[in-house]
Hints:
Layout: H1 2-6, H2 9-48, E1 60-62, E2 68-72, H3 75-78, H4 86-92, H5 109-122, E3 127-131, H6 134-137, H7 146-161, E4 165-169, H8 177-181, H9 191-205, E5 211-216, H10 218-226, H11 241-262, E6 267-273, E7 276-279, H12 285-305, E8 312-316, E9 320-323, H13 325-330, H14 336-343, E10 345-347, H15 350-359, E11 367-371, H16 382-398, E12 403-409, E13 428-430, E14 437-439, H17 444-452, E15 454-456
Parallel strand pairs: 2-3, 2-12, 3-4, 4-5, 5-6, 6-8, 7-9, 8-11, 11-12
Antiparallel strand pairs: 1-15, 9-10, 13-14
Helix pairs in contact: 2-12, 9-11, 10-11, 15-16
This protein binds beta-D-fucopyranose.
Amino acid sequence: MNLYICYNDExxxxxxxxxxxxxxxxIVCLVVFTSGFARLTYKSFRYNKAYGHDKSNDETLNFPKxxxxxxxxxxxxxxxxxxxxxxxxxxxxxxxxxxxxxxxxAANHYVMYKQDVDLMNQLNxxxxxxxxxxxxxxPKQGEFxxxxxxxxxxxLNTLSAKGIKPMVTLWHHSLPYWFxxxxxxxRQENITYYEEYVSYVVKNLSSExxxxxxxxxxxxxxxCGYISAKWPPGEQDIWKVNRLLKNVIQAHKRGYEIxxxxxxxxxxxxxxxxSYAVPYHKNNVIENIAxxxxxxxxxxxxxxxxxxxxxxIGLHYYYRQYINVAAVKDLFGQSLDEFESGSMxxxxxxxxxxEVLMRFEDYNKPIYITELGVPDYHEIDRDQFIREHLRxxxxxxxxxxxxxxxxxxxxxxxxxxxxxxxxxxxxxxxxRSTMERTIKDESWEYAQIANCxxxxxxxx
Length: 460
Ligand code: FCB
C-alpha cells in the first residue's frame, strides 16, 4: 500500500535515469557487506581455534621466582557494616538477595582482619588482594574519614609484619550511596568524585602499596546494574551502557595518572573477567562470530581503550562458556535468569585458562590472575580445581605469557552479592553464628603449592 503511494511518476523517472548508478550502489553494498562478513568469519574462526599445548613429563611444575600466591576479597563482601554503600539499601529491598540474606556483619573481617592475616600466613600466602571501601573513606560527599584510612593502614601494617604483599583495589562493585544518588557513572561530571577519592587514598597510603587496581570488573557492574538489574541501581536500560563504559574508562585513566603522579614505581592495573567463550558447534559460522564478539565486547573492547594506562592486567577466569545458537533462539521465550543458568553452558574447564591467557598475548603486559575460584557446591574438589588450573598457568608461562601471581577467590566464605551466603568460595569456612574460622581440608594443598612455588604434575 505504502509502496503504491510512493511509487509515482516522478519516482519512476528518477529510477529510470539512475538505474545504472543504483545498481552499482547495490553491488558495492553487497560486496562491502560480504567481504566484511567474510573477514569477521575468518577472524572469529582463527580466534576460536584452540592453541593447545603438550604436557610436561616433569614430576613438579616450577613457577618463576617471586611468583605471588594469594587470595582475594572485596570489602563489601567480607567487612560487614558498610551502611553508606549503595548495596546496603539495595539489599534491604524485598527479593533482591537470594534467601533474603543481608550482609550485616558479613565475615566480620573489618574487626577480625588480624586473625585473618594470621590464617593467610598459615596458608603460606605471600600476597593479599583486598579492596578499600569508598563509602567508608567518604561516607558523605566531600567528607573524608581519617579514622578509616588508619584502619586500612593497620591492615597494611599487619600484612607487612607477616611478609604479605598487598594488592589494593580502589573500587570493587560497591559505591557510596551519595555517589549513586548523584547519578553514579552515568554522569561524566561525577568522575571528579572518583578522582578526589583516589587522590585521598593514594596521598595517605601510597608508600605502603606497590600494586593498585583502579576498579574491579566494570563490565560486570554495568551488565548487572543496568541490564539484568540484579545489582544496584537495579535498572534495565541498555541505552546507558555506552555512556557508562565511556565514563568508567575515563575514570580508570584518571586513577592511573593520579597514582603515578604520587608514585612512579607503582604498578597500576584493572581487574577484568574473561570466560573461555567458544562455539558449541565448531563449524557453525554464527556461533563462531557470536563467541568472538562476546569475548570482545565483554573483555577486550575495554582493555584496548586503556592499553597506555595499564601496567598489568588483572585477569579473572571462572569457566568455559559455550555459545549455542539453538540456545540463543530460545532467549526470546525465556527470562534472562533462565537463559543464564540453563541454555548457556558454563562449565569447569581448566584448559580454558590456558587458552584465555594465550588470547592476552598481544597486550604484551604482565598478568596477575586476580580471581579464580569454586564454590563448595560444585562437583569438583577445591584442591583438584586449583591444581588443574595452576598447571595451565604453568603451561602459559612456558609459552612466554608473563604471569606474575595467582589470587584464589576467596579467603573466607562471604556475601556473594545477589547470591547471598549460598555460594561459599572460601578457603576458610566461617560459622555464621559464631564467626569462628576453620581452614577447609581442601585448602591445604594450595598452602603446599605456595610453599614450594610449584604444583605437582603426577596424575590425580
Ligand atoms: C567476581 C567478583 C567477586 C565475586 C566472584 C565470585 O566476578 O569480582 O566479587 O563475586 O566473582
